[in-house]
Design brief:
By secondary structure, the protein is mainly beta. Helices cover 12% and strands 34% of the residues. It contains three helices and 16 strands. The strands form two sheets. Strands 1, 2, 3, 4, 5, 6, 7, 8 and 9 form a nine-stranded mixed β-sheet that branches. The chain has a five-stranded mixed beta barrel with strand order 11-12-13-15-14. A hairpin with a 5-residue loop joins strand 12 and strand 13. The longest helix has 23 residues. It is globular, with a radius of gyration of 24 Å. The termini are far apart.
Length: 264
């Protein structure tokens, strides 16, 4: 019995050695090398192709832009925002944790053919052709997102456009902006950014010295949703969007709120 046991142990050991040798012969995993495609159009040129009801892109259009969004803090969901020198656009993707794949400041190229431009509340985005005709476009399925989105080199993050509440414009929609000399309304200072308990998205209101206002929209799923809003004045950085004619700011992370000065 002892000899049989030793014999079996020897066979097992040889099998493990062969397994290890075979494993080492496998190809190494592919390296995620950055690519550089040639854009055919700017982001604003692409957005100008939109028409009511949505437009399917039937030609080989490629746009390029830097990533300006991150869903790490939960205030952005299933969306990737990119911008170039002409404008910004939302790319709808049916995946969470996009910050793991597309870093802020990274150049990406979007192959637009067979995707669809759509709008919700006037905010133009690009995504998949929808199955439900009640929506102008849908989310690109995560298993095929890399068929459309090509990673370029990782560069420095985008410097936000420095604006005031009075200089906001739809031409800056889906771009990273920094609003200076603003504060939240006095009546809202006791409130959190959103309803974290019930996971409800809520609006808060920024104002400047002249009474110009802008909405700060925060998801109830954001990690900072339950944090009391900043009490002072100063600057706040986020992605500018519009719902019809109402300007809305989406905060990426709480550290982008720099309202550290006395209230005016």
């Amino acid at each position: 019995m002892k000899k049989i046991t030793i014999y079996l142990m020897g066979i097992i050991s040889l099998f493990m050695v062969f397994q290890a040798c075979d494993y080492n012969n496998f190809d190494n995993p592919p390296i995620d090398e950055p690519q550089a495609l040639t854009p055919t159009n700017t982001i604003n040129e692409l957005k100008s192709m939109y028409a009511s009801g949505g437009v399917v892109v039937n030609s080989d259009i490629i746009i390029a832009g830097k990533v300006i969004s991150s869903d790490q803090e939960g205030n952005i969901y299933r969306s990737l925002y990119i911008q170039d020198n002409t404008g910004g656009i939302e790319i709808k993707i049916n995946s969470s944790g996009l910050y793991n794949f597309y870093k802020e400041g990274q150049m990406v190229y979007l192959k637009c053919k067979n995707l669809k431009l759509g709008a919700y509340g006037g905010n133009i985005s690009i995504g998949a052709v929808p199955v439900d005709n009640n929506y102008e476009n849908d989310f690109i399925p995560s298993p095929i997102m890399e068929n459309y989105i090509v990673k370029g080199i990782k560069e420095t993050p985008v410097t936000p456009l420095s604006l005031s509440a009075s200089t906001l414009s739809k031409k800056y929609s889906c771009m990273l902006v920094k609003l200076d000399n603003v504060q939240f309304l006095q009546s809202e200072l006791i409130l959190p950014y959103a309803d974290a308990e019930n996971k409800v998205t809520q609006n808060r209101t920024l104002t400047d010295k002249n009474g110009n206002r802008i909405i700060v929209r925060t998801s109830g799923y954001a990690r900072f949703a339950g944090t009391q809003i900043a009490q002072g004045s100063g600057s706040i950085t986020g992605i500018l969007t519009y719902f019809n004619n109402t300007a809305q700011l989406i905060i990426i992370r709480l550290s982008d709120v720099q309202l550290n000065n006395p209230r005016f």
